[in-house]
Amino acid sequence: MAQGALFIGWGEAARGREQQALQLFGEVTQYYTQLQQRGEIASFEPVLLEPHGGDLAGFLLVKGEEDALGRLRASEEFQRFNARAQLCLERVGVVGAAVGEGLQRQFALFQQLVAEVG
């Protein structure tokens, strides 16, 4: 079971860069499919949000072991995809997240700290 995740969020396509944004989405989807097939990540899920007046238009949730996600984040391919995304999308961001066992560990730590502070 995956312990960690990367939340990769973005806003709307930059004006005039819509075609590049669509092409990038296809390439990124293919990239994460290959990583999943090779066992480098546990899974990924692209999500496109309906218009809602906020800044977030969509996101990818990439799940895996924390050390594997760290290697992914440091890889040249990942950094190139993010740099390209920043050129054709508004408000691109990457945030580490806890899922599965990692989430359970975080809540256990929080409970312990609450008891110590309480």
Q: Could you please describe the fold and organization of this structure?
A:
By secondary structure, this protein is of the alpha+beta class. It is built from four helices and four strands, in the order βαββααβα. The chain has one domain: Alpha-Beta Plaits (2-Layer Sandwich). It has helices at residues 18-37, 66-74, 76-88, 100-117, and strands spanning 4-10, 43-48, 58-64, 93-98. The longest helix has 20 residues, at 18-37. The chain is globular and about 55 Å long. The mean pLDDT is 95.
Q: What's this model, at a glance?
A:
This protein has 118 residues and is an alpha+beta fold. It has helices spanning 18-37, 66-74, 76-88, 100-117, and strands spanning 4-10, 43-48, 58-64, 93-98. The protein has a 4-stranded antiparallel β-sheet with strand order 2-3-1-4.
Helix content: 40-55%
In the CATH hierarchy, the architecture is 2-Layer Sandwich
Order of strands, main sheet, comes to: 2-3-1-4
What is the level 1 CATH name? Alpha Beta
Largest sheet features: 4 strands, antiparallel
What CATH calls the topology is Alpha-Beta Plaits
- Runs in which pLDDT lies below 50 for 5 or more consecutive residues are none
- Which descriptor suits the 3D outline? globular
Radius of gyration: 16 Å
Number of domains: 1
Number of helices: 4
